[in-house]
Amino acid sequence: MILYNTLIGVTAGAALVLVPILGAKLRRGHRVEPEGWALSFGVLGIILTFLSGMMTVTWPLHAKPQVNIIFGEPTLFLGVLLLAAALFMWTHPEAFRDRSDVALDRLTGVLRPVSWLVFSLGLILLACTVAVFRFSAIGAAPAQEPISGIFHDYPWVENTLVGSLYALSAVGPLLAPVAVRDLGSPVARMGGWCLVVSGVAILLYSALNYYTHIGLLVNAG
Question: How far apart are CA 182 and CA 67, in angstroms?
Answer without folding.
Answer: 36
